[in-house]
User: What shape does this take?
Amino acid sequence: MNDDQLLRYSRHLLLSDIDVDGQQALLDAHVMIIGLGGLGSPVALYLAAAGVGKLSLVDDDHVEISNLQRQIAHQQAAVGRSKVESAATSCQQLNADVVVEVYPFRATNEWLNHHLSGVSLVVDCSDNAAVRYAINARCVAHAIPWVSGAAIGFSGQVAVFDPRDSLSPCYGCLYPNLNDQQLSCAEAGVLSPLVGVIGSMQALEALRLISPFGSPQAGWLATYDAKAGQWQRWQLSKRSNCPHCNPV
Ligand SMILES: [Zn+2]
Assistant: This one.
């Protein structure tokens, strides 16, 4: 770390659980963020601010005026622009040291298979069951940990999956059969700062995976009810017959 970095990251260096080694691990890390909407915005901004060395931003969407109520990585002037380009600009304005790669594509099984090499972890900020199952499948195959997040209406959830541990449950153990019939935010609405709460938790769990502190959260689901103002935690278990993590 050079003098500028020692100053920039000084509030991390003061944390004995992070210190120089933890910050160096963040600087050496490569995180792929899939989806640059309401969840992906705080994830990308916090990971850039925290000094994660390389970010790969993946989203095939463009910024619309109705996104600006909650997708804080995008400025009003970015309407019509690719979300990955817009979010990359915001990340670089925050921290020019971070390398940001942009992929204006949908994260399919095949695409992920070709782009996960060298990735330390994935943060799923998509709003699509097919993309989540693709991330789960490819992260299981490549033994890459990932942080799942979802938010709609007044409630959200965060879960960490770590296929490096063969006893750890996968997304398919939690949801064996989700389909895309669920409501989207465009249909059901979503409270603006709720995606900030959930996205910030995802960013925190990403940092925990890279620069380990406290208790590992893999295998836990945390749900947040914004109306009740309450978090709940649920321990997940691996299904012995899960076809997603026990391929036959
Ligand atoms: Zn499973």
About this structure: The chain has a mean pLDDT of 95. The longest helix spans residues 192-210. Residues 103 and 145 are 20 Å apart (CA to CA). The two ends are 46 Å apart (CA to CA).
